[in-house]
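Why does residue order matter? Because the sequence determines the fold. Keep that principle in mind as you read this record.
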Amino acid sequence: MKFLTKLYPHQIAAVDKLSKIKVGALYMEQGTGKTRTALELIHIRISSGKTNKVLWLCPCSVKINLREDIIFHCGEMPPDITIYGIESLSSSDNLYLQLLKLVEQYNVYLIVDESNLVKNKKAIRTARIIEISKKCKYKMILNGTPVSRTEADMFAQWYILDWRILGYQSFYSFAANHLEYRTIKTPNGGEIKTDQIARTLNVDYLTEKISPYTFQILKKDCVKLPPKHYNRENFLLTDKQKEAYKYIKYLYLEAVDEFRSETIYKLFTALQHIVSGRIVLTSPNEQMKTTPFFPNYAENPRIQKIKNIIEEKILTEKCIIFAKYQSEIDDISKLLTDSGLSWRMFTGKINQRQRQANREDFKQGVQFLLANKSCGAYGLNLQFCHNIVYYSNDFDLATRMQSEDRVHRIGQEEDVYIYDIYCPETIDQFIIDCLDKKENMVETFKKWITKWREYEHGQNLSKLQCI
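Structure:
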């Protein structure tokens, strides 16, 4: 394997540590070059005869970009490396059997990229990767951070490497020593344990156990990049939108059960539709249906705000626009088309091959890339662009950070400008505040509603002001 790119000092340090052990975790924040680091470790294993095949598992949406990244570093796709999508292991029995046969026939070096996708040990894909890993002496997990939400995420990922590292053969044993679950009191004075984690115990033990097998680096500690500039761009709802928002807020609040997170997500989603310019047609107990609030999309205050940002701040520069809903992306595409501006789409609505063609068009000459974070947060290298507009945000802090790092990474030479469109004193404001504080939105909301019920139990839920 030959390389066209050199290692940075932090990558050399990672290789020096992990090349001495059979299994390990490469926790490198997005934009610090974990692919190049992994390739160097692969080269060492193959050159020494320790392995003769590499099975690289990654999110399906990343496969093509990973291949391009490897070719960028190596000049060609090494024949020893085979790439498959993690999610495919859930749906394809044939692929699972094929990979089992692969690891039986070869000395396979197993790479699990974006390993946070296998944090649930009960999931089919996780169970199958564990079985595959049992036949591999050399294994490595790649991720931006050891913990995406709670330390519970660690168990399955480290079980793939070797259960003896943490010392637990079952999640039950792990949970008994490290997780404390929230309980609720029953009318007769008893307690019921929920599946919500109240706090993590003995974290120092976990840190000590994984430390010898871990290399971790943050972008701020190893790469000098131009700064990010955050800009909050607000707009106001129309009077009719305000009335609809107030009605839906009270209606869906009444159906909230803080011990059932899905009822909270449903409330959030309903409110997001209103501030996005949709009418919610259904009650909390029905499958949600919406329709456009404005007969003419251009009357939507949110659309008017992004039009203003484009005309006054983006001008002729390239820009990525992230939106949560396909209906939002459809409206933005109408705006750009009516304004005579070039754009391409990067969403689940189109297939992988077309997405990559659209990305290449964006790189070559198209001004705007319209994406949702489920497709655009992972695996894209877009350093040639330094403007991002979040037309709307979802509830996932991890993918928000990932999506920002599509442009703020090694190779970026310009200051990065990030614009968040939001409506004050609505769900938009709540999401923005949680992102700023790096708080989990559902857990934050539960604290609000629990506190309110403690002090004003029995009163109208309209007094709840967090959203």
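The longest strand covers residues 191-200.
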